[in-house]
Amino acid sequence: MRRNGGILWAWLALLLTVRSGVAEAQSVHMAGRVVFVRHARIARFTAVPPTPGGSFELDGDPTLLGGRLTFLEVGNPDGNDVAYDLPVQASPRGWRALATGGYRYRGAGTADDPCRMVIIKRKVVKAACRGAGVTLANPISGEVHVALTIGDDGDRYCAAFGGNEIRNDDVMMKRTSAPPKAPCACGAVPPTELRFASRAPSGVCGGLTTTSDPVDLDCGTLYFGGGQVGTPPFVVTDMEDPTTLSVDCCSDQTLILGPSSQASGGAKGCSRKGCPFGPPLVVPNPNPPQSVCVYPVYTDDARGTARCDTGEVRITLPIAGEAYLTGDILPRRCSGGSSPGLRCSTSADCPGSGTCQLDPTLQPCPICNPTTGVCNGGMNNGMACVPGSDEVSGATFPTSRDCPVSTLVKVGDIPLPLSLTTGTSVKPSFDLFGQQRIFCAFCRDPETSAFEQVSPGIARPCTSNADCKAPYTRCQQRNGGAFSYAATSITEVGAPAGSIDDFATHDATLVSIFCLPPTFIAIIDAPSDLPGPGAVSFPGRVQLGSPDGAFTDAVSPLATRW
Question: Are residues 127 and 239 in the same domain?
């Protein structure tokens, strides 16, 4: 099987692999007594063993392994999800063993640690998370799945609410009496990972509705910014190395996906907070000194859902792009000799009697030369590297994580909150007093045009002027519209893979429409017209796998290149 890459959008290149580092872990399917969700207030659930009078085995000690709690809406391509890390911490916070048997987690009740109470006992599993960290939005149209995982090797406690719907509106959702889901019926053996790799771009995957003629959105292209964006959209690179997600729960045909640990896939297979994501991304600008090289990093754990029978996939990738203002990193390069393409100042820098010549093309990122196998430009100029892509070509590719740039030119981090789906995603604009055609609004001072920072680098999102406080009284994006047009709606059309339970590769397209907040860095926000919307599509492939090697096409489940 030839190595496949994938085009990930301009802040990230996409390759998604769902790999479980939990081959010995067991999915425990619980009966749900109650689930309750109220946005920014509370998310709680209670579940019991699947059979009356039964009990949980409590396999895995969270006081040693820690845990993770995930709420996901399944069945809605634009559904909600949120994951809470439940780490081992010193008392009174964190996990402790109960004298009566079982374990309890006590959180701080803050936005980043909202789960004040999580309890695992032989007869009951329950949790209550409160405050701003409850980002699930009401109403909730799909099933609410809950996955409580203990470390990498402990049990996975899984519940799905269906059940009886007591209330579900824009204020709150409450469901009760949800029976346990059927056992995993996906493939000959339960899958423990799902791979997605995007490919080189081709065709049209979406469009804009505007105040005049409609506008096509090309596949494999990253679009960003409002109606006055100065930086054009650009094709994003494919990725050689898949990103990996674990299968936390498998019930019937539904997979609940969580992050892969570094231990299970190495740095290139890690999809947890702090891990790198894909090769560097090239962000050229018509004004070359403003061109940027971006190194994407997970700011939180990846998560998502998939269907084995239809190949529908939805994955949340909380990413930030570490942006480096590099301009043209290779103004002069070696020609001929033993290392053509190498960065140089004079011909003395070119081994093997090469000559140093001007390079008229623009390269914001170092290049991993596919012929010589060494970095051209950057801090590792002339050192060995492995290309991060092999399909998208041109003067700016391939890039590689093996070829870093100086930290002295870092200008900041760009939040990239991708929520990818194989369904169709549509985002309409709205109008408010003071601005029309708003897609992604934040509180702004109408006198200075500055956006509010509720904490350093963090803006206040809003949907109306009533959400904002003086002097930041207007709910706006930087300029109305999208992608340099007077747009009123954005659409991206994905394509599910079809049945994937044969563990072979299947074509699919994942898409995302998202909001880019202000970075509060003028050299980024001004030419990119941020805050504003973003959109991307990734034609690629999807594949399931398991730890016993149950891949087809002779692909190892532990392979780091696909």
Answer: no
